[in-house]
Design brief:
Blueprint (H helix, E strand, L loop, with lengths): L1 H17 L11 E11 L5 E12 L19 E9 L2 E4 L3 E6 L3 E6 L18 E10 L9 E8 L10 E2 L3 E2 L4
Antiparallel strand pairs: 1-2, 2-7, 3-4, 3-8, 5-6, 8-9, 8-10
Length: 175
Amino acid sequence: MRKYLALLFVLVLFAAYACKKYEEFPPEPKIEFMDFVLLRDAQGIDQLGVLRFSFTDGDGNIGLYNDDTLPPFDYNLFIRYFEQKNGTFEEVFLITPRIVNDTTIIYDTASFNGRIPILTPAGKNKSISGEIEDTLFVNNPLSPFDTIMFEVFIRDRDLNESNVIQTPPIVVKKQ
């Protein structure tokens, strides 16, 4: 009798494990804004901010390999920067100087875009969800405007783009 009870117990455990439900998400990534926290320097000036958002992806193919360096696989986290000018948010393309040969200055367009590393889980179920944090510069010294905003979306390895999220308006303490 004990032998049959043990066998029955093992069968019930196996059946319960086999019926385990996994969360299912669409194959396109989806993101949701969580928060944005300003970080002040020792002088009380906002220099950086930490953006946090959550994500889901049904086939778990978010992330880039180290060898992925050419478009369209150079970035998979896309961030646009806006400043409020006369009550309206306008996208701003930041220009940064770069010195070449100790005397020549070349101006590049700065980008907030980034790279999310490979997040694909091992195993049969590839659906994933989680949170991403990114630290961004928030103080544009070339601008007199103090209210900014960011727009964000991500792209998976199938080039599926997520929805676009926005931060609320962020008032930056300047010098």
